[in-house]
Design goal:
The complex is a heterodimer. Chain A contains 4 helices and 5 strands. Chain A has a 3-stranded antiparallel beta sheet, with no helix packed on it. The longest helix of chain A has 11 residues. Chain B is α+β, with helices and mostly antiparallel strands. Chain B is built from 18 helices and 12 strands. In chain B, strands 3-4-5 form a 3-stranded antiparallel beta sheet, with no helix packed on it. In chain B, strands 8-9-10 form a 3-stranded antiparallel beta sheet. In chain B, helix 2 packs antiparallel against helix 3, helix 4 packs antiparallel against helix 16 and helix 5 packs antiparallel against helix 6. Classes of the chains: A alpha+beta, B alpha+beta. At the A-B interface, helix 1, helix 3 and helix 4 of A face helix 2, helix 5, helix 6 and helix 13 of B. Bound molecules: iron/sulfur cluster (2 copies). The site of one iron/sulfur cluster (SF4) has 12 residues of chain A, from helix 3. One iron/sulfur cluster binds next to helix 4 of chain A.
């Protein structure tokens, strides 16, 4: 008891452990934050370092993809869909992605990769940020067909 | 008390059975209540402050994992199993891949088995510390709660460094693991383990030797040994009642059989068994220390070699498809024994059956003897002492036209007999 009490009292005089990312006082809107940053009124707090081989947001390279659709076979969340308008290349709906990286392991030509980007939270699941390789605007997206 | 003395009443769609006394009153709690962290409905019959009867009604968070499984192949489904539980995610993956390996007769390489055990034990450390923190919170000792959760960060960081993510580690693969333990990962791991060895005494002093914790939890929520055996409780709950039951050391799955460890019981710690909340705290704290020893041993003995039976997922999938069978695996999860049963037919890619029995399912009924005779103020800590995880537990629900149905043991036996007959044909 005494030991942890000593520790707890010591912590009273330490800085908080929480990293205030992205800024100490961030407004609700991200755009506003960018404005403040430009004006120099806000300061960006860097995020905590991510571990090596982190599983973040996917990236997809149509130049490499050979359309074998092996990745579709191991994806638990049906993230990829063939897009007939784009010569049957894949569209990725990342709001469903569980970051398991099985598609990355499966792809024979390394067309899919995991990046270090972790900013994936969004209120709108059809946001541009959450759809890879779509030529449609979010409003045009239909409910994806069931397999 | 015989069933005849009980009153039955229908609240919502639950048939509740409680025994009444002259001056007693019933208190329904849940499914949504400030004192509960997860949806569960409890009915208490109270006489003054004392609980004289309890009825437990689970079944609010069924997610349909079993059905999802039948639309996916084992590789595709393995990330989903880890989402059954957010705290012991690796254990579910571990059990699932072992049940598939059992069905298809795959032998994972020795190195991968060691890595699996290391991750499972790291997860036990994190789960037990998380529990200890929330137990401290339940007894109103919030500075202890923050202290323990701060120390827990170290193992979370280690898991994140080794596996790439903080919660769902994705380490398991049918026939092996997906990531190797490289030199630098081992260095990081050792750093975390040393940290825990340094603070071990501190944690034990504050949880086991502290008068506040002891006064609040000694002889509260007692589960006698006979009752624990009758109700087939599992995990730290049954061990705290003095039963040496631990799948890791009894059955010795994976590489556990190569280690010389004994299940931890209060007998070994205090030379006496009370079977109360305090014993459960002590067992879990000592298990953290045991896990550290297991991981150290694993790192020491870690053999060289492959980390997977087949690293090419495409080839692995073809192989899975060409063989079929039914598999079964048991694992000692942080909360107790976890069972997965899986099956697939030859030539078919998708699984045909998937069943899960989580530790909370085995432990939930022990809540009744624990709560009987306790006071209202003790209900949260007694409830928390089995480390319940409702979302993992709700495995079956039968709803037709909005009516919820409950099957009795006899009916269930009839149904399973019928099914066996059907399968025999
Ligand atoms: S990381 Fe997993 S969930 Fe995400 S797209 Fe790849 S396979 Fe699907
Ligand atoms: S596995 Fe790779 S090459 Fe094949 S379809 Fe998917 S992204 Fe394209």
């Amino acid at each position: 008891m005494s030991k942890i009490m000593r520790k707890i009292f010591k912590q009273l005089f330490q800085k908080p452990f929480t990293n205030l990312f992205p800024a100490k006082y961030a407004p609700n809107s991200v755009l506003k934050l960018f404005e403040l940053l430009e004006e120099g009124e806000a300061e960006l707090n860097p995020p905590i370092e991510i571990p090596p081989d982190f599983r973040g947001k996917l990236s997809y390279d149509t130049d490499k993809c050979i359309k074998c659709y092996q990745c579709k076979k191991v994806c638990p969340a049906n993230v990829m869909e063939k897009d007939p308008d784009q010569d049957n290349y894949l569209v990725f709906y990342l709001s469903r992605c569980t970051s398991c990286s099985q598609c990355v392991d499966m792809c024979p030509v390394d067309a899919i990769e995991m990046t270090d980007d972790f900013l994936l939270a969004d209120a709108d699941k059809y946001n541009d940020n959450l759809i890879l390789n779509s030529k449609k605007s979010p409003g045009e997206l239909k409910t994806p067909e069931e397999e | 008390m015989s069933d005849d003395d009980k009153i039955e009443f229908n609240e919502g769609k639950d048939n509740v059975k409680l025994s009444k006394k002259d001056n007693s009153y019933s208190v329904p709690v849940g499914p949504i209540n400030v004192a509960l962290h997860e949806p569960l409905r409890l009915y208490f019959e109270e006489e003054g402050e004392e609980v004289i009867d309890v009825d437990i009604k689970p079944g609010f968070t069924h997610v349909g994992i079993e059905k999802i499984a039948t639309k996916r192949n084992p590789l595709e489904f393995q990330p989903v199993t880890q989402r059954i539980c957010g705290i012991c995610s690796d254990t579910h993956g571990f059990t699932f891949v072992r049940s598939i390996e059992d069905a298809l007769d795959f032998k994972p390489p020795l190195r991968s088995q060691y890595i699996r055990v290391i991750i499972a034990e790291l997860e036990r450390i994190h789960s037990h510390l998380l529990w200890a923190g929330s137990a401290a919170h339940e007894i109103g000792f919030d500075s202890l709660f923050y202290y323990i959760w701060k120390e827990r960060e170290e193992v979370m960081d280690a898991l994140e460094y080794v596996s790439g993510n903080r919660v769902n580690y994705e380490m398991n693969l049918v026939g092996g693991v997906r990531r190797d333990l490289t030199e630098e990962r081992i260095v990081y791991l050792k750093k975390a383990l040393n940290h825990y060895e340094n603070i071990k005494e501190e944690i034990e002093e504050t949880l086991i030797n502290d008068t506040t914790v002891k006064m609040r939890t000694r002889d509260v929520g007692v589960l006698p040994k006979e009752k624990a055996l009758d109700l087939a409780s599992v995990g730290p709950t049954v061990r705290a009642s003095g039963v040496k039951k631990d799948v890791r050391f009894g059955q010795g799955y994976s590489v556990y059989s190569e280690f010389d460890f004994e299940p931890i019981t209060p007998q070994r710690i205090f030379n006496e068994v009370h079977g109360d909340v305090f014993d459960r705290i002590a067992v879990r704290v000592k298990e953290v220390a045991q896990s550290i020893r297991i991981i150290k041993k694993c790192i020491e003995d870690l053999p060289e070699g492959n980390i997977a039976y087949e690293e090419n997922l495409g080839k692995l999938l073809t192989e899975i498809k060409s063989s079929g069978g039914y598999g079964f695996a048991r694992t000692e999860a942080p909360r107790g024994e976890l069972i997965h049963y899986t099956g697939s037919k030859e030539g078919e890619e998708n699984m045909s059956v998937m069943k899960v029995r989580t530790p909370t399912y085995g432990n939930l009924l022990s809540l009744r003897p624990m709560l009987m005779g306790s006071e209202i103020a003790d209900i949260p800590i007694v409830g928390a002492s089995i480390d319940p995880c409702m979302t993992c537990m709700d495995r079956m629900i039968f709803v037709e036209n909005g009516e919820k149905e409950t099957y009795s043991k006899k009916e269930l036996r009839e149904i399973s007999k019928e099914k066996t007959e059907r399968l025999k044909k």
